[in-house]
Structure formats: structure tokens, C-alpha cells
């Protein structure tokens, strides 16, 4: 009677060791067992009779034993030994069946034939093997022995991996009888040095950027081969090798990087991550950007000429709710338009200040007066609210810049602009399609000049009215796919904006915001005033700050006045004064105004000086006979100059002697004449008025 160990019995039954052990304990009367002493002195070995096992296990045991016996009788192979790990061990069975279905089922039939041969138990097995091989396979007995050996090796690998992983690998027996798939990508006709040159040319950045073709590559390869005396394959083989590199070796992205550059590669090929916007509060993060509409409107320029333009939209979107706010439509966006957009957002649309903003990297969004940071130096200033940055001045905690040419950093607003184009802009007769370089196929030919002449284009005001109607009545109340994908409770922008948890921060006073709308700069006060815009600005109060550096604010639309600040406090309002030109004649009013200011400044400074000396004079006047050595107060040591007397010497000029004093005595008569003439003029004006 044949016996096997518990481990072998478990393998034959397809069970785990603990399972077969418990099964024998439960049904001890159904199993024949015996104990064998261990040769190493360890625990006794429990053996189970093969006849006690199931029919499936007995059949598997018989097949295994016959394979062992048959291999022992096989003639020795003169060929090289097979590698330790056969090809089918790492093969995906589903892939093989999909690509080599006919081969696989031929292996199944061949396996059935081998099992029939292995069931032969009579004598003269060698003669039977020769006749069986000729009758069933049409091959020699040697081929039959080789197939049986492969079958047995596959069974051994299947048992080995089943012990390690617990899975069934009987399909190894079928695959061992199948032809190994042809190894692709070897290209034996192409020498290694030729392969290297092909890759160097194909992936060269200059060659790829110029849209180099396979014909160009092969021509250059022939030149290099002639110089180095290489043998190169045919053109078709080189093309197949390039195709193999691009598709099978997955070098397509590398070629895209060489052909299109880093910017396009990052935009099209680099993996992106999706933001979890549901964890944000409403008004916690806003994205801002500028969008050019793909349609045309009529625009009246300051000089009165009407032209056709593509209007621009400056707007912000709440990342949580996708609500578009602070929308301003203009001809050209700049820093002032961006300020107006933010003020419209916080005072009219949202009635609150956002916590953080993500802004575009354009110069209009990152200019110093908005961020408080020099765009090139990236050094934050320490001055007051006037120049520390508009964003922080109105209460925004912080801002982040989107990286240049990486639109996915602000994906929500970019996607919203595409919605604007698809659902709003395309409804206009003046729509001309997307005019970007990467989407030239979207262009629509329209005669915009003729439409302008016929009056078919909407004005800016009419266009904004249509936009505002679509934004507030359609977009805000339409189900948003981004909110649906985020599994939001409220799936329309308006509902999500008004009903979800919100970041609360009160808006600053409107007067303060109005002041922030003025532009801020540093300036130096020269004796001629503050030099800005080719003009000089001066006021009487500013005279005290000549030679100092001050801060100024001004309205770009009205540069006649600048507001001067020193150490955060407003000093005065300075007005533009007309420059004194060097010419034969000078405008009398300009000279008179300049002289008046000089005299007023000197008078004011003298009054300040006299007021500062009053205390000292009063002390000195207490002494009737003032002498410094007797207790009088004097600040400087030195001789005193005698006081000026009222006696003067008359000039020798005859004009002065004869007429100067006379004209002065007649001055009251001249004033009477002027008064009478003025009264006559007023009477005439009254008559005209009646």
C-alpha cells in the first residue's frame, strides 16, 4: 500500500495543511494512517494511505508517479538544458489566449493526448511510445519524450507556486506544450550602434521641433553609415524600429517633450491632481483672471471714432461654489480695472472680503501697488497701507500666484471661461471662434468691418446687459457639473454660495476703499516742488518739506492734484504749477504767482523764526542796561554790529529824484480813476443782463 505525507495529501486534495489534518481527525475511520519515525530525531511523521484519498487526488498521484518513472527511462538530452525559469511562469494567461487562441487550444488537445499515453501500465513501454508517437502525433518517440518532460516540468512549477501562493497553476501544463510567443523588438538586423544613432537623431530637440520625418532620418543615417562603414537595414525596418520605440517602449511622451517643449509637455502630458474643493468654505479661496470674448462689439474711442473690438472680462470665481463675481467688461484690462472688479465683488456681489485669492501671473495682477511686492525683486515693502498692497489693504489675508503657462493651477476659472464661450459667446452673430494658436481650427470667418458699418455689432453697454442677464439668470441657477462631481448638497452656484458655510469678514469703509483706488508712489520734494508727469506740484505747506522724501497719491484720470503724505499722515494737496520758461518774455501771471509763493514762504518762515525768539527777547528786555557780562543772555560770542539808523542816502538818479515820489503821492487819484472805470463797466453788464 502506498502512503504519502500530510503535506503531499493536502497538495493532492487541493487543501491547506490544517484543513486536511482536521478532516482526518473528524473522519478517522475513513482514513488509513501510520506513524513513521523521523530520521533526524524530530517529531514523528504521519503518513496517509493513497487509497484513503479522493478519486481526484488518487488520479493526480498516479499521474505524478508515472511522470517520475517515465523521466527516469527517458534518454539523456544532448541539447542544452532549459533555463531555470520557463517562459510561461511570468506569462499572463488571458493575454496569451487573446493573442494566441489557436495555439492554446492545440496545447489543450496535446495535453489530453499525453495523459492518455501516461495511463499505459503494461510492459514494452518503449515500443508503445514509438507506436503511440507515430499514430497520435506523427512524431518520433524522442519528440514524445521531450513533450512529456516539458509537461512534467510544468507540473513541478505549478506545485511549487501553489505551495507559495495557494493558487492553482495547472495552466502551466498547457502552456508548456504551446509555442513560445515570438519576442518582439529585438530587431537583430539592426546593429546596436545603429540603434543608438537612430534614437539620437529621432529624439534630437532641433530635429523634433522642425518636424523631422523618417525619410530625413534615414538619409542622415546613410551618411553616418558611409563614414563609419556600417551596414544599415532597409528603410522599412528603420520605420518599424521607430514605431516600436514610440508604441511598445512608450517613448512617445519623450518625443513630445522634445518636439513641443516643456510648456506644452506640462500642459498636455504631465499628470494632474484634482482639488478637493468641498473642504473649503464659501469665500475662502477666490480665483481671478482675464478672459477675451470670442465675439466683437462696437466701441467708441475717446476721440469719438467707433471701432470693433473683442471685449475683455475681468472676473473672480469662488472655488467652492463656482459663483462668478466682480465681473467688469472693458476694452483692455489693467490694474485699475482689477481694483474696480475687487471692489464690486466685496461691496455689491458678495458683501464680504475673501480670505485668500489665487491670481494670474500677469503683470496687471502682480504689480506692486496691488501686491506690495516688487515683481522682479520679490521683496515685500514695509511702508503703510498706501503702498503695501491693495489686496492686503482691503482685508485679504494672502494671495498666491499661478505659475506661468500652467493654466491648470486655476482650473476652476479656466473651465468656467470655456463654459462662457460654449453657452454664451457662441450665440452672438459676431462670434469668430477661438483665435489662439493651438486651436486655429475653431476660427470662424466673419466680415467684422462690414458688420460694424451696417450697425450689426452690439455696443459695450448692450453687450454687458446681455452678459449680466445670462450670468445672473442662467449660469447662477443652472446645475453645475463640477458641483455634481464634488457631491455637493447644492449643485447650482447660487444655492451653494448662499447656503453653504461661509468665511465671514466685514468690508472696509467705502471712503477707505475710495482712497485705495488712488495710485501711490514715493516722491522727492525739490525747491521747485514734486516732479511728476512732466509737471511740478507745489503748495505752501509743502515748502516745509523741501529736500525730504514723501509719499503721494493721485487719480490717474485727474493729475492736476496730488495728495502728499509724510510718515503716514496727510500733509497737503499739491497743485500743478506752470513751469517758468527761459525766454525773452515770461507770462506775467505765472511770474506773479511764483513771486507770491516765494514771499509767502519767506514771510511764514520769518514769523516762525520771530516766534521762536520771543522768549529770549522778553528775558533780555528785563534788563534796562543789557550787558552780556552783567547777566544778560546772548547765544553767540563776538562783536555786535551797530543798529541801522533811519537815515538813508538818496539815489543820484534824476528820474527817481523828480518823478518816483510824485507818482507815489498821486497813487490815490489813480486808484479813484480805476474805481470809477470799474463802476461804469458793471453798469454796462447790468444793462446787458436785463
TrEMBL record:
<dbReference type="Pfam" id="PF02914">
    <property type="entry name" value="DDE_2"/>
</dbReference>
<dbReference type="InterPro" id="IPR036397">
    <property type="entry name" value="RNaseH_sf"/>
</dbReference>
<dbReference type="InterPro" id="IPR015378">
    <property type="entry name" value="Transposase-like_Mu_C"/>
</dbReference>
<dbReference type="InterPro" id="IPR001584">
    <property type="entry name" value="Integrase_cat-core"/>
</dbReference>
<dbReference type="InterPro" id="IPR012337">
    <property type="entry name" value="RNaseH-like_sf"/>
</dbReference>
<dbReference type="GO" id="GO:0006313">
    <property type="term" value="P:DNA transposition"/>
</dbReference>
<dbReference type="GO" id="GO:0003677">
    <property type="term" value="F:DNA binding"/>
</dbReference>
<dbReference type="Pfam" id="PF09299">
    <property type="entry name" value="Mu-transpos_C"/>
</dbReference>
<feature type="domain" description="Integrase catalytic">
    <location>
        <begin position="287"/>
        <end position="501"/>
    </location>
</feature>
<dbReference type="InterPro" id="IPR004189">
    <property type="entry name" value="Phage_Mu_transposase"/>
</dbReference>
<dbReference type="GO" id="GO:0015074">
    <property type="term" value="P:DNA integration"/>
</dbReference>
<protein>
    <submittedName>
        <fullName>Transposase</fullName>
    </submittedName>
</protein>
<dbReference type="InterPro" id="IPR009004">
    <property type="entry name" value="Transposase_Mu_C"/>
</dbReference>
<dbReference type="GO" id="GO:0004803">
    <property type="term" value="F:transposase activity"/>
</dbReference>
